[in-house]
Amino acid sequence: MSESENPAAALRAAVRERRMPGHPTRRALLESGDPALARQAGRILKDLAVDGERPREVDVAVLATCTVGPFEALLRAQLVGAGLLPALRSADYGTFGMSLATGSFTRDGDPGLVAVLLDAGYFLPGDFGAAEPDVLAKSVDARLEELRGLLAGALKHTAATVVVHTVPLPAQVRNGIISVRARAQVARSWYRLNAGLLALAEEHDQVVAVDLVGELAEAPVQACDVRLHRYGDLPYSDDALLLLARLVRRVAQARAGLSRKVLALDLDNTLWGGVLGEAGPQGVQVGGLYPGNCYTELQRTVAGLREQGVVLVLASKNDRDQVEKVLTEHPDVLLRPEAFSARMVDWSAKAGNLRRAAEALSLSTESFVFMDDSDFERAQVGDELPEVAVVSAAGDPAHLVDSLLRHGWFDVMALTDTDRKRPELYRNRALRGDFSSGFDSSEDFLRALDLKVEMTPASEYTIGRIAQLAARTNQFNLTGIRYDEAATRRMSEDAGHLVLSVSVADRFGDEGIVGALWVERTDEVWRVLNLVLSCRVLSRGVERAAVGRLAELAALAGARSVEGHYLPSDRNGVAADFWTGAGFTPAASPQETETQVFTLDAATAKEIAPEWIALNERNGSPHE
């Protein structure tokens, strides 16, 4: 019996062996809609500890206006399903306002995430009359203002990301008002409440708002268990709490940089209906009435993902010329050939093709989502590449879009300009690969690229992208410290620190922001707390140019030396020799950590940057 067929046994084995559950088990946790299974999984995973190389950890505090009930277990199962190692703590019942007002939820350390569980009873007056809708509306507005003030005060105590959600209006309140006009008035005030809850994310950078009401409207579940509500102040059904746990997990997943970058798609009975080899280019189903309109909607959705930075790959067993003909000539096809950054159209095994696509794009297969209608193809990819998120396109094509989107594989905390440009950036990467084949040496190729590197102090417009790089970069990540947006902003505004973005352009186009440095600076020494660089620009000398310019700036500011740090992990070995290769000398490292320290005389900065890179700055000099 496989892990996915008996997840409870697999979870117990993982806890017993002190390791993360395998990919099939974690995938089963995310895909299951059974709250009983999720509750059981959450209870089993309460004692999960991991030896050796640890996964991303997330410390979550749960603050609730009602009884937490099974929410903590459901959330734990979802977080582990996403590949996170969670530590959860819930505030005591009845302490919601006090916890926010005093910041007591930080007593055991500042959590990375605060999940706020709200119920309608927090906003409804206890003695409102059904014949007085104005009284109810004023009370709801007042409670929202009170929550807004409590939340603003709580943010002074924490750097955590706080997740709030919209709240459904109980049916008994709605149906207890017999005046049709008054009922509409109450509904309008409740919509205003939920609009205000969603607006909290616009008022505070640390707040994320998720739409539980919208999820409940689409899901065939009951929001409230009336008996449990009366018996134990549990206002939500287990099904509703599982929906909320998924929404919070998606935030944690995006915050940890675990979002996927690539969508690999089959063609036959996935992007269009029918089998091309049997129906011919004119016979595939796309456009028009059902089922063709289902495939049109999927293509429109995929095009929307691409506009937001998701890289598209074709992975189809088909005749290449026939596929090209359909993609180019079919009037109802929305995804033309240029939409795909890589096209793996042949008769080879799809797992191998996904590996080759990942190599061509210089990305890990961990960043892939694969969608296919064939049970065999999905199983083969799942077995050989368990780290790939597999999405089924089987069954009624009306459900294709929901199947692709429901798990939030591509969620990011905020969309940046670099995200929007990513598909074209990876198409240009393939062009560079063709361009490089005509040179006798790598240095000749690099000179011909006409590389330009730009160093820029972090600003309101770039902090989001810089924090995203910290969260998502694994290979060239020198210390593994993932400064989030709040921490990056504080450092950028502090005279004792410096945060720089690194942008790259060449003859094929602008790569955008591909790297960042977080620096602590004193009169004598500038310490590089972390340096990250996207894998797509490695081997061009960009990292050396960035550090060379930093050392030059340190010398101009009067500092004598630059100090670099490196903390080995199982994924950043590519950066192990960076500091010594750039001319730094190993120094004594702090005994209490495994961090390696390297130093460089700031006066030798001009010797670091490769001569084939032109380096410039904008928005002023970073040392000013």
UniProtKB/TrEMBL annotation:
It comes from the Bacteria. SUPFAM superfamilies: HAD-like. Gene3D superfamilies: HAD superfamily/HAD-like (3.40.50.1000), SGNH hydrolase (3.40.50.1110). Coiled coil: none annotated. InterPro entries: FkbH_domain, HAD-like_sf, HAD_sf, HAD_SF_ppase_IIIC, SGNH_hydro_sf. NCBIfam families: FkbH, HAD-SF-IIIC. This is HAD-IIIC family phosphatase. It comes from Streptomyces chartreusis. The lineage of its organism: Bacteria, Bacillati, Actinomycetota, Actinomycetes, Kitasatosporales.
